[in-house]
Amino acid sequence: MPDPALHPTLQRQLKRVGLLPSARDAAAALPALLERVSRCYIEADQDRYLLERSQEVASREMSELHAQLAASQARLASLLSLSSDWIWEQDASLRFTYVSAHTNEVGRDLATLLSGKHALLDLEAVSEADAKQFQALVAARSPFRNFVCGLGQPGGRPYYLRVSGEPVFVGDEFRGYRGVGSDVTQATQAEQRVQQLARYDALTGVANRGMFLQQLEHALARARQTDTSLSVFFIDLDRFKAINDTLGHDAGDELLKVVAARLTSLLRGADIVGRLGGDEFVVLLDGNPDSTMLTRVAGRVLSELAEPLRLAGRPVQVSASVGISRFPGDGTDAATLLKCADTAMYLAKARGKNNFQFFTPQLADQTARHLALEGELRQAIQHDELLLHYQPKFDVRTGALLGMEALVRWQHPQRGLLAPGEFIALAEESGLVVPMGRWVLEAACEQLRVWRDAGLDPPRCSVNVSVRQFAHPALLDEVRNALIAAALDAGALEIEVTESVLMADPERAQQSLKRLHALGVQIAIDDFGTGYSSLAYLKRFPAQTLKIDRTFVDGLPLDRDDVAITRAVISLAHSLDMRVVAEGVETESQLGFLADAGCDEAQGYLLGRPMTPELLADLLRGQGERRAA
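The structure corresponding to this sequence follows.
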């Protein structure tokens, strides 16, 4: 029986574990039982303590881990903000789900720009080959490296990205892509600019020489395969050098831009416009053009380029000379076609400019002679093959020798003595007229000194100055140096400038003439009446002489218009205190009319042909003897 002295609860516990067989046994087991229970309580307390300690350690370590992770994320975010690199993630449908904080060059947030974009499939690849390769890699769920694409922005300025990515799988399930990207806008734009410069003219935007030749070769290959024809236009602006010299290089550049734009606008989309350099343009007409079409297009080119425009605040009208070559008749390769078109263009210039010419085989020989003559002229200037003849000017009423005009001749080693008409145009075109003009100045002044040293009294000598020479900045120094070298007073020299040269840029011409006049040199306006003089400007030019062009003298005294013009010019010149010289006087009736009209001086075959220095010396001696008598 259980011991009634035991607590009922304890009795139940002891009975449950089988420790109460009897009261005696229970009493004997009680101490051990109490010790065991006590130990259990102690162990439970220890386990609870250890558990609490473990939880504290775990919590502390977790806090430290979170702090380290936060610091690491902060460092990564800081480094990303300092570079153009960024991180991105996409889901299985290839939509951007995460883009790290990043701002591009123009202040647009990248996450905003990529919002709603499908991978890079919505972005514009820099090249078609890159786009195809990228699409194939994405379709195969493969990694991709360094794919460059463009991302449009408001305002039209592109933003270029270079991205690398790898697919994300959980087991066999595709979950999307993740990767890195970088800002390559400046590098990509610089590369595109280099490619642009390599293929297109930097000033006008049309194809440059290399690009045009490449396109021409491709067109020739197609034409050979299809047994069709094509044509090349060689276009050179007339008087571009004069515009550049008078209005400035900025105006010249603006003119070239306008020409390129006009050519591009009037041609078909398949045609190609190129600029070879300077004022030389070329056009490729593909698609089997016939002679009728080429003639029509050439006419449109001339008409379009002749439309007036404003340069440097002034109205300007230009013209062009056009040469045309055709494949296969004129040549079968690009170089030959360009050469033939260039040759035809020179023929257009020789025939008065502002026209077009087709290449013919006869032109090849003519061009060869032209180039040979240019080389010979260059040698002539260097080897003293040039010489001067002098045409006297006489007083219309008294017949006294009042002046002379220095006229250049070329003593060609094989062809003999050449008149200016055979080489002056070539000298102007090639630029050789500038060194030639300098030689004429020096030679004329030197000859005046020779005559004076011989005891003769030569009158004032006139020297013609060409368009290019007048525009040359060294002209004033060249005149001064020639006078100093010959120990002459400036009044011994007269500079003749044509009316058209002065009116090309009146303001600049006025300044140049004032500087020459300040030096003491006399100024004559040549070919008056053949250009487009403004009387308002004429009175501002510091000129002492006005020369009536021979085209008006030819009709005297019968042509009513020539009579009226000549009388008006003489009256105008005298009202401005200028002398009047008539050119090309060849008959007594012309001389008589000029004397009656009040002309001051005359020159022409009737009075005296251009003569050598020795013959002019004889004329000077005869004049001196008559004065002495």
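DSSP finds 22 helices and 22 strands in the chain.
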